[in-house]
Amino acid sequence: MYFDIIIKIILTGVVLGGALNLAGLLTWVERKQSAVMQDRIGANRASLFGLRILGLFHPLADMLKLILKEDFTPRYAHKILHALAPFVSVFFALIAFAAIPIGNDFAWRGHAIHLQVAHINVGLLYILSVMSMGVYGVVLAGFASNNNYSFLGGLRASSQMISYEITMGVSIMGIVMMDGSLNLQNIVQAQGQYWHHLPLWGIFLQPVSFFLFLTAAMAETKRTPFDLPEGESEIIGYFVEYSGMKFGMFFLTDFLETVLASALLTTLFLGGWQIPYLFHDGFHFPWGTVWIMAQPWVILLGVIAFSIKVIFFCWFLMMIRWTLPRFRYDQLMRLGWKIMLPISLINILVTGLVMVLL
Amino acid sequence: MMNFISLLHPFSLEIGLAIIILGLFFLDLFSVQAKKNIGSWAWGLTFLLLLIHLSNWKHFVSALSSTYVHDALSFLLSVFFLITLLFILAMSKSYRHRFERGHSEFYMLILLASLGMITLASTTDFLLLFVSLELITVSFYVMNTYLRTDPKSIEAGLKYLVLGALSSGFLLYGISFIYGLSGSTHFSDIARYASSPEANAKVLLFGFLLVMVGVGFKMGSVPFHFWIPDVYEGAPTPATAFLSVGSKAAGFFILIRLTNIFFPHFQNAWVLLFTLLSAITLIYGNLGAIPQKNIKRFLGYSSIGHAGYLLMGFAAGSTQGLHAVLYYLFSYLFTNLCAFWVVILFSKATESDEIADYAGLSKRSPFLAATLFIALMSLAGVPPLAGFFGKFLLIRAVVEKNLIWLAVLGALNVVVSLYYYLMIVKKMYIDEPQNPETIPLDPSSKIGLSIAIAGIIGLGIFQAPLLQWIESAVKSIL
Amino acid sequence: MESVLFYTFATLVVTTALLVIFSNHPAYSVLYLVLTMFGLASLYVMLHAYFVAAIQLMVYAGAILVLFLFVIMLLNLEREGEESFRSGPSRWLALPLTLVFLVELYTVVMQIHIKGSKGLSVEGNTESLGHLLFTQHLLPFEIISFVLLAAILGTTILSKRNWK
Hints:
The complex is a heterotrimer. By secondary structure, chain A is mostly helical. Chain A has one domain. In chain A, about 65% of the residues lie in helices and about 5% in strands. In chain A, strands 5-6-7 form a three-stranded antiparallel sheet, with no helix packed on it. In chain A, strands 1-2 form a two-stranded antiparallel ribbon. Chain A has a two-stranded antiparallel ribbon with strand order 3-4. In chain A, helix 5 (about 135-145) packs antiparallel against helix 6 (about 150-170). In chain B, helix 5 runs antiparallel to helix 6, helix 8 (about 150-180) runs antiparallel to helix 10 and helix 18 (about 385-400) packs parallel to helix 20 (about 445-460). The relative contact order of chain B is 0.09. Chain B contains 21 helices and two strands. Chain B has a domain at about 270-478. Chain B is mainly alpha-helical. Chain C is mainly α. Chain C folds into two domains: about 1-80, NADH-ubiquinone/plastoquinone oxidoreductase chain 6, subunit NuoJ (Four Helix Bundle (Hemerythrin (Met), subunit A)), CATH 1.20.120.1200; about 130-165. Chain C has helices spanning about 1-20, 25-45, 50-75, 90-110, 125-135, 140-160. In chain C, helix 1 (about 1-20) runs antiparallel to helix 2 (about 25-45) and helix 2 runs antiparallel to helix 3 (about 50-75). The longest helix of chain C is centred in the middle third of the chain and has 26 residues, at about 50-75. Chain C is extended and about 50 Å long. Chains in contact: A-C, B-C. At the B-C interface, helix 2, helix 6, helix 7, helix 8 and helix 10 of B face helix 4 and helix 6 of C.
């Protein structure tokens, strides 16, 4: 009993710490990435004891600045809701990580250990529903500020998130149909199978669904090319009336959602913690070579593989963010409702037909 | 795969209707020619469906662990709804000029509502019952608001929406009580529970009363009637006609299925409830109709009165009562639809629903006047028309159960209703028309009205075939 | 433990549901309704109905109520007019009738022994639900799609501004 609780606490700490640190680090990656892509040097001024290490101290400096800034509430705002909104945003972005498996299940001294904070039967639905609750932070921010600009931003954000949520949910149904489970751990385990030495990862089985989900997930994170709710050059977004750490929390939410999207993409389409040809007792390569490994190392390799894949996707999303221009609002809606939703529905139909016929 | 097809087989009628609905959607999308005649397409296909359905006579099955049955009763009821549907589709054609948009969609909503009614006819499960009722109600929400620039239509739609949602809530609450007690939504399981010794009659009765709120809204019986006059007046007339026949009948058909479960177990409460409901509804509907100036409002109050008559059959609680209710509904189908069709044709020519404008109708269009005359007389219950025989059966059923005062009240109300129906007849035949122009009629409406008149007179004179059919149908659920 | 949780969530549901009615800013009403949905979802979780709980949150709290909030924000409703609800002498009937109903409800609930089915097997919850939906309850399930069709038709016709 106590053992299980301690394990869970450690696991929660690891996941939370990992997600938050990665999100913080992403602020730096974003600056550096944009700098590289625009042929600039990027942030490199923050220094500690004369050390600059590529500006890695910038996230710390940013954080410090946000905390020390004045926390201002407009006079005509709805005070309670205004204060509540950023917390709602961050809260739902964080608890979504609970259902993501970071490694394989294993037994240790007679205890079954799930490397998953919450071993939820309907984990996938849980994540989707929690993500959909994230809209409230945005809507509340837009509404409670009592400012037309933030109101516009809030409206845009909520309509965008609702529209793309549907595609997001529908697009992964193909995966669920093939794996027959809503538990993310089971979905990852099912991706450990092989078809003529090709690992049956989601991305190979459901390529259409991968691209749909990728697009929808980018729209959910509200970053370019889907950054209409912020649209810093046209309207100033739902958080225009926020300052200090409350603004910082919205800022953080965007990055947390990027991490979450990457984690979900990894879990559903890139085999989660699976490494090709790594079985529970070690590597069995298709050309016959066998490397036997002890179980703890296999698990550890899985966790590392998972982290690397997540980081890869974070970087990938960052690339897209700095490559593409912003959509126009009607284009956004047309893409969501008239292109992506029909394709994802057809994808379900085709998947079903293929499954029945095979 | 074969398994799936055999699963679908019992639903040929429902699937047929669903295919018609979806087919019309595509026809409407892709063919400009068909878009113009979508009403005729809908009518023709539905007629074909009715013929196919009639040829399936005596082919009774049950499906989905018998939550869905095709017995003689459901066959009768689906024929009832299909005939109603054909009439409504036909009369919509004379009304479509009033819609600024969505001409073909109106037909689809009518078809969707009747799909709900037809599934309702065969259900023996509260779950399906609720869903079908919702299908009917949602379609009517839209149909009632269809004249979206007319404030009266918006009022009608809004009132129907709010009260409809409220009554659905009560219905669902009642169902959840019944489910909580018996552990099933299936009618036969509930009946089994109700007759078992551990049954909790009080709570079951409470659940039934809550269900009655939802059903009462559909029937338009008195404490749940507030929406009727306004909605009947504001809604497009075909929708009103459909509400007054299809939707009302749906409520009574639910009650017929429920009679079996609940009547044997709390007879006293049942008889008390329905005699009271019936008496109040009768008095309210018939007295309310007298001062009306608008013909649709007037028919609305008269339909409340008819709900009162129909409830007499449930107050009797006997098989004779159920026979009478079914017979009355069939006669009401032809009579009321006939009256509404005349209202539509009249308003098409004169753009008015005011009773005052009906003055001298006999000189402007003798055919319409005669038709309305026959319909009103049948509504009042004058022999040898269908309405008379229906009322006769109902009063006989009540007298057999020694509810003499209810029978007397019913008879008195016939007199009252005769008064206000005759007022309109006087307007049509004795008063001089303000505008002597004749009213043009297209041949298809003439044929339709003639069929309705034939139905009214036929059911009044040759009662035996329908009555036998009804008897065999009622026998199938006992 | 279980009853403590149950009463916590039940209180949450009831109080927030009451607050939905009594708060005088419509936007707050919607937000309280969100909390009600949360409470309900928690109660579903306690009944091991995880699927229903997740769907409840996703559909009601995550989509429908957001749209409610949306409309309320767009209409910019502030306090609603007090007099708009006070209609006619029939409102004096409301209180006694409600009291009668509540008393009735109380007496009924006091003597109830809920039987109900104890829910599906805990593990394969979603699977068995899906199985039931596509066998025994196939027809209601399909009819619901027609209900949605009617609703879509209705919203398009009644609300679309430019109609070619």
